[in-house]
Structures are given as C-alpha cells and as structure tokens.
Amino acid sequence: MAITLTWTGHATWLVETGAGTLLVDPFFDECPTACMKAAAVSCDAILVTHGHFDHVADLVSIATRTGATVFCNYEIANWLAGSGVKKTQPMNLGGRVMVPGGTAKMELAWHSSSLPDGTYGGTPAGWMLDVGGRRIYLAGDTALFSDMARIGPGGGRRLDVAILPIGDLFTMGPDDALEAVRLLDPVLALPNHYGTWPPIAQDAAAWAARVTAAGRSRGRAPAIGERVVID
Predict the structure, then answer these.
(1) pLDDT score at 165
(2) Could you tell me if 208 and 191 are in contact, meaning their C-beta atoms sit under 8 angstroms apart?
(3) Residue 43 CA to its chain's centroid (Å)
(4) In the predicted model, what is the mean pLDDT of residues 60-81?
(5) N or C: which end of the chain has fewer CB within 10 A?
C-alpha cells in the first residue's frame, strides 16, 4: 500500500495511510511558511510530539472541528481537556497505539516541552509509525542521541523513512542530522524544522545531497506542500 507524506511547513506533516490521514504537530495559521490554513485541514487522527506553540498552535481548533482523536502525552491531554477537546489518548514513552492504517509508537526525543500558557508540557517525543506495511520515523524536535541506533532497526526490518530536524539552534543541525541518518539507516531521509524563521535557515537540498553521497540512504528535500509517495 502506498503511503503519502506531505510537509505543510515547519514540522507539520500529513500522512495518508490508505486507511485515513494522520496529522502531526499542527502549526498552520501562525506559521509563516505553511502552505495551507488550519480550517482547510482534514484528518482522522492527530499525533503530537511536544507542547511548544510551533507544534500545537492549531491543535485545539482542528481537534474540535474534525473530532479526530489526539494521541499525546498525559500532560498535553490534560491541557486539551481544559480547552474543551474531548477525544484524546494520553500515553507516554514506549507506548504503542492503533491509528488508521497501523500503529504509532511514542519514542524518545531530547528536547524541552512547555505549553502555550507556560504550563509543563510533559516529556517530548518522536513517533514511529508502522502503517501500510511501511516504517516511518518522525523524530520530532530533538538533539542527536545514541538510541537512534536502536530505533532504526528496532522493528526487525529496515526503516523506510526518517524525518529529521536540521534547523540547528533549537534542534540538531545538519551535521548531527547526517549522523542521525547513519544511526537510523533509513531508505529515505527527509528534513524539517528549518527555514521557518531566519535563525533556523538551512540549505536543505545540500543536506539531502550529503545524505545521498554517504552511500546508504537517499536524501530528499521536498518543497512545502509537495506529496512524497512511499510505495
């Protein structure tokens, strides 16, 4: 089954699994690079990596309008309940849940997490998706960490896609992200969390070329709004 990944800007992704659409880290209306507005988004489930505004700014409005279940850590689920969102699945690192098209496992990330109102946002995370017969890892906002060597081959078969931040300053930069690719060993590596504002500007095409030149994985830097088909 073909899986389609669409980067809508910053660290927000739409994952079409064939059984539904997953939305990861909704940030649209205040995102200067987003290719669409929150009101145009359709999804069946929402996955959240952590509580920073650039990952949850449109979470409440989209969850309320669509009725999609939000999969997130316990602290974010409590915050959503206080904002009137009724369908949440609180969980924590290592947990795995059913999502349209397969499963999603909450994985480690090294970062911080606070919510837009300043309250504690729980432990940050990444997501390992096993959907449509494909393994797709969204690292979330993170530094490089050695457990990526476990995460990549952890499903017993090679990782199909790794989506990694390359912006530097608030996450790992291009050099560390290149090392992350080596540890994860995906077939395809895609960058995100760059170019939204000047402090995180990067040459993503150059990074993707470095990934490919390393000889094991293929790098690609999709344009915002471009659909990447994994078949």
Answers:
(1) 98
(2) yes
(3) 15
(4) 98
(5) C
219 burial level (CB within 10 Å; 0-12, 13-18, 19+): buried
Asked if 203 and 186 count as a contact pair (C-beta separation under 8 A), the reply is: no
> Is the entire prediction scored with pTM above 0.85?
yes
Q: How many residues does the chain have?
A: 231
Q: What is the pLDDT of residues 124-173, one digit of tens each?
A: 999 999 999 999 999 999 999 999 999 999 878 999 999 999 999 999 99
Q: What residues does each domain of the chain span?
A: 3-221
CA 223 centroid distance within chain? 16
Separation CA 60–CA 63 (nearest Å):
5
Residues 6+ apart with CB under 8 A from 213: none
Residue 200 and residue 168 in contact, taking contact as beta carbons nearer than 8 Å: yes
Q: Using an 8 Å Cβ cutoff, are 190 and 165 in contact?
A: no
Chain position carrying tokens 């170019």: 195
Q: What are phi and psi for residue 129, nearest 5 degrees?
A: -100, 135
Contact 190, 164 (CB under 8 A): yes
Q: Does domain 3-221 have CATH number 3.40.50.1110?
A: no
Nearest to 181 by CA among 203, 202, 159, 200: 159
Going across the sheet that includes 3-9, the strands are 88-91, 69-73, 45-47, 21-24, 12-16, 3-9, 227-230
Cα 112 to Cα 97: distance, rounded to the nearest angstrom: 23
